[in-house]
Amino acid sequence: MCAAMYVLSTVTGYVLTSVLLFKCPSLLHRKKRETFRGRHISHRGGAGENLENTMAAFSHAVQLGTDMLELDCHLTKDEQVVVSHDASLKRSTGVCANISDLAYTELPPYLCKLDVTFQKECFCEGGEDKHIPLLADVFEAFPNTPINIDIKANNDTLIRKVSDLVMKYDREHMTVWGNSSNKIVQKCYKENPRIPILFSIKRVLLLVGLFYTGLLPFVPLREQFLEIPMPSIITKLKDPRRMTKSQRIVTWLADTLLMRKALFDHLTARGIQVYVWVLNDEEDFQRAFDLGATGVMTDYPTKLKEFMERQST
């Protein structure tokens, strides 16, 4: 009887403490300092409105008033940091070669028409700008625009050079970097801990586990940005009729576990911004913001801007 009472009192105390700290995380953790707030985020500069990761795309998004540009980086053979999503040039240029095998001056231009990855059966036809830019070009052109950098390769030289560029252009306070790979994120943090990092997939899974066990309020987090997909959009990218029952169950389960307002609110209270990607429909914009996401990443910056303007009136 005494043992049962002891266990009950211990569990009750744990639950009550967890709930209190979950609702009031400042009692245990100092809120992270926010140097910018990204609500409107342009994925690859806005891959549905201009050719992805081009200066034209970035310029268009910045002129619209985007809060943040999202882009991807690779390293050329002559160790130039370029802005491109794929390691291979096949999809984007039609050339069967890797970026790492060519010098910067040898890189071919983009094709006239590229697929929009997160919009079913949709393509973007670009204008005159089909040039793969240097990261330095983007930093010089948009000195006051926060940038989200996806380090696409586990390459120490790439990570060091990106860090050097961030410091050269005095952008540590408005840059976030990382990758889904935990190894890459750890290397980024080790190279320059002053640049805020994203949660890797491994850390997202840990975060979800801590959330559902009630341990999250007790655990310090060094990441400052949670960037996660909305799993339900898979049904818009694939024909639901061709999805197996197990695929539908996994999608539903992932969406249920990840899209939690309580989790987003707790992280926001700790100064951790929550970005949901890649959303291209207004119903998904609405759902993300209703859930407490601090930002939405989209291929269609004009559509997101118009949505946000209507919501603010």
TrEMBL record:
Subcellular location, principal: membrane
Entries under InterPro entries matching the protein: GDPD-Related (IPR052271), GP_PDE_dom (IPR030395), PLC-like_Pdiesterase_TIM-brl (IPR017946)
Gene3D superfamilies membership: Phosphatidylinositol (PI) phosphodiesterase
Top-level taxon of the source organism: Eukaryota
Catalysed reactions listed for this entry: N-hexadecanoyl-1-(9Z-octadecenoyl)-sn-glycero-3-phosphoethanolamine + H2O = N-hexadecanoylethanolamine + 1-(9Z-octadecenoyl)-sn-glycero-3-phosphate + H(+); 1-O-(1Z-octadecenyl)-sn-glycero-3-phospho-N-hexadecanoyl-ethanolamine + H2O = 1-O-(1Z-octadecenyl)-sn-glycero-3-phosphate + N-hexadecanoylethanolamine + H(+); 1-O-hexadecyl-sn-glycero-3-phosphocholine + H2O = 1-O-hexadecyl-sn-glycero-3-phosphate + choline + H(+); N,1-di-(9Z-octadecenoyl)-sn-glycero-3-phosphoethanolamine + H2O = N-(9Z-octadecenoyl) ethanolamine + 1-(9Z-octadecenoyl)-sn-glycero-3-phosphate + H(+)
GO biological process, one term: glycerophospholipid catabolic process
Keywords: Hydrolase, Lipid metabolism, Membrane, Transmembrane, Transmembrane helix
Record's subcellular location: Membrane
Alphabetized GO MF terms: phosphatidylcholine lysophospholipase activity; phosphoric diester hydrolase activity
Transmembrane segments: 6-28, 204-221
Domain GP-PDE stretches: 38-308
GO cellular component, one term: endoplasmic reticulum membrane
Assigned protein family: Belongs to the glycerophosphoryl diester phosphodiesterase family.
Name of this protein: GP-PDE domain-containing protein
Annotated organism of origin: Synaphobranchus kaupii (Kaup's arrowtooth eel)
Taxonomic lineage of the native organism: Eukaryota, Metazoa, Chordata, Craniata, Vertebrata
